């Protein structure tokens, strides 16, 4: 095998001719192209400080919305009792709605030149919504927990909007 092929793998012409099978290039490493917390300047007619503040607020909202989304899925899986079926469907519906909001918030962060939170550990460190126990809770407690999370987010966005 040629030194080029050893280092870079098969060429396009080798692949096109069928003499080499396409193989993924594994274990690649590289530097971050944009650190978290830094704004990429985009031509959107907003001052960098405005974008920075909005991205910070939106990342907080993103972390809390992702947590709320996950609470709905947790309760969807763990609901029990005579209202199981109705709540199981309702929690899953709200999970889907929160997932759409998560995507919209993350995309807005990108449009402002920011980097959105994405990993569970980062969300857990950032969210203001208290972590629930791992086990199953009564329906009334599940509903109360969800309402409290919604209220926290509503208070948060009102403050951010000011």
The CATH architecture designation is Up-down Bundle
Silhouette: flat
Percent of residues in beta strands? under 5%
The major sheet is characterized as: none
Could you say which structural class the secondary elements and strand pairing correspond to? mainly alpha
Supply Rg: 22 Å
- State the CATH superfamily name: Ferritin, core subunit, four-helix bundle
Q: Which fold does the CATH topology refer to? A: Ferritin
Rounded mean pLDDT score = 92
Oligomer: single chain
Number of helices: 6
Uncertain regions: pLDDT < 50 for 5+ in a row? Answer: none
List the domain count as a whole number.
1
Q: Secondary-structure element order, as H and E?
A: HHHHHH
Q: What is the helix content?
A: 55-70%
Termini separation comes to 65 Å
Beta-strand segment tally: 0
What is the name of the CATH class?
Answer: Mainly Alpha
Task: Give a short summary of the structure.
With 162 residues, the chain is mostly helical. It has one domain: Ferritin, core subunit, four-helix bundle (Ferritin).
